[in-house]
What does this fold into?
Amino acid sequence: MDDRREPAVPAVRVSDRDRDEALGVLAAALAEGRLDQHEHEIRSRCALRARTAGELAALTADLPEPAPTRSEQDRKDLREWLAEWRYWFGGAVIMSGVWGARCAQKGELTYYWPVTPLGIWAAVLIAIAIWPRYTDGSDEGGGGRAAAR
It folds into this structure.
């Protein structure tokens, strides 16, 4: 449902996918008790007849975005974890460049000092991947991270 965060252009015609996403938001609101059955039916009928993004946005404007599903949260967590590894790689390139420049300046190979910070950083990233995380919001074993796994 990341598309809901983008402001809708009111006069743009909507697709069946857009209608389905709005119906998903309405169904989640019904399941959470934010809408009663009658109002859900009315809004759902209007969503199915909606032709523009403005009409759909009006039907869901007063409802919060549904919590991400477990698989959506897992994909988001994986993307963030892989992004951290890209930062690690960038740090490795920069530190290795500094080390290489220093070695060229001295005219000899010296101790590869980047191994220490890179090793610690990699150990932290691996620990994040294997450390258990809980969905109940408790701080047990997750260091405050209450993400679904």
Summary: Helices lie at 16-32, 37-49, 53-60, 70-106, 115-130. Confidence is low (pLDDT under 50) at residues 1-5, 138-149. The radius of gyration is 24 Å.
